[in-house]
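Readers of this paper often ask what the protein records in our data store actually look like. Such a record has a labelled line for the sequence and another for the backbone structure tokens. Nothing more is needed to write down the fold, since each code stands for a local backbone conformation. The remainder of this section carries one protein's record, kept here as part of the documentation.
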Amino acid sequence: MLFINYLVIAAAALVPTFVGFIWYNPKVFGTIWMKETGVSPESGKGMNMVLVMVLCYVLSFMAGISMTMIVIHQNGLISMLQGVPDASNATSELAQHVKYLIDNHGSNFRSFKHGALHGTLTGFFLALPIVATGAMFEQRSWKYIAISAGYWIITFMLMGGLICQFT
């Protein structure tokens, strides 16, 4: 029994789109990002935006599942006991200990604030290195790295907060 709420993940998967609409707006970072990438409003006219948005949502949903494992610490206990025979036997001593722990400590660190903290750390220690490594090989500027990584840091912060609070 992992702590996964697919409805909450589905809602949190909308966060990257909403943050992107603000973050990449020309009045925020959109103009700078377009200059740094060489993208123009005209170059996007040939895109199949429905397909792009659907695929982005699916990828965001996948990120939400990963974020669930990062921000909800109780999943570590459950995961650690996967495959242990006595864990699935409700009358076993082990299952009784797990039940006690979940009943008495299952809501520890389950707040928006705590999820946002872990989401932010995930942004800095996972998204930033991935974005920066790819960007350096693509010979992108530090402005591009800051804008792209900043987007993921804010996005993961909000996703982590929502998932931790409502799962």
